[in-house]
Amino acid sequence: MYESAITPDHKTLIWREDAPSTARDILSAPLDSPNVVRPIRNSAFDERGFSLSPDGKWLAFTSNEAGSSEVYICRLESNGAHWRVSRRGGSEPRWARTGELFYRNGDSVFVSRVSLGAEPTIGTPSLLFTGQYTNAPFEPLWDVSPDARQFVMVREPLGAGGTQLVLMVNWIESWRAGRGSK
User: Fold this and answer.
1) What is the pTM of this model?
2) How far is it, in rounded angstroms, from Cα 141 to Cα 123?
3) Interior angle at CA 24, CA 22 and CA 28, nearest 5
4) Residue 135, pLDDT score
5) Burial of 124 per CB tally in 10 Å (0-12, 13-18, 19+)
6) In sequence order, what DSSP letters do the residues of 116-177 get, joined into one string?
7) Contacts by 81-89 with C-beta closer than 8 Å and gap 24+?
8) Within a 10 A sphere around the Cβ of 14, how many other Cβ atoms?
9) Which pLDDT does position 164 carry in this prediction?
């Protein structure tokens, strides 16, 4: 089991699994019945790098279905319809409670407004910012605050001589304040 998440209602586990016949797949199981495994996305394509919507009913994920890595969204159901969000490449999707979906394409971060309903409405992605930040092929190494006003990212090392460490004090309180949590 690789990448994993628990839905906001704490009832379902979502994870990525590598399968010889279908590459990388996204699966789910109820926490009270872990043997009842169902596929969310399993196909001949590589599905990975997922993020649950704030309400836990939708999934953003990366797939190579279009011939290159692109970001898609789907309902949290078995191999249902899916909709493409990115237009010229994308990976590492992250949701915000604002209805925005953020994703990376190389050194660039894009944002698209997504309205979820019977069929989602997906806004045209726009470039938000660029920078030299670390990425990983299967798991996002960054996140966006629930209010979409702050980002946490791992910056590439500075130059050939060393690494800079930045210490953020009380970051969890700041993050929680943006979520409206306890």
Assistant:
1) 0.83
2) 25
3) 100
4) 79
5) exposed
6) -SSS-EEPPPEEEEE--B---SSS-SEEE-TTSS-EEEPBPP-TTT-------TTHHHHHHH
7) 82/41, 83/119, 83/120, 83/122, 84/122, 85/60, 85/112, 85/114, 85/122, 85/125, 86/110, 86/112, 86/125, 87/124, 87/125
8) 21
9) 62
- Dig out the tokens for 110 from the structure: 């894009």
Strand order of the β-sheet with 58-63 is: 47-52, 58-63, 70-75, 82-84
What does the pLDDT read at residue 162? 58
Identify which of 91, 101, 72, 172 has the alpha carbon closest to the alpha carbon of residue 139.
91
φ/ψ (deg, to 5) at 175? -65, -45
Count of C-beta atoms within a 10 Å radius of residue 75? 16
Nearest-angstrom CA–CA distance, 5 and 16:
10
Neighbours of 71 (CB within 10 A): 30
Can you give the pLDDT of all 182 residues of the chain as single tens digits? 778 999 999 999 999 998 887 889 999 999 999 899 999 998 889 999 999 999 999 999 999 999 999 999 999 988 889 999 999 999 999 999 998 999 999 889 999 999 998 899 999 999 999 988 887 776 788 999 989 999 988 877 666 555 566 667 777 777 777 665 54
Architecture (CATH level 2) of domain 2-131: 6 Propeller (2.120)
Structure tokens at 41: 């996305």
For tokens 């953003």, name the residue: 60
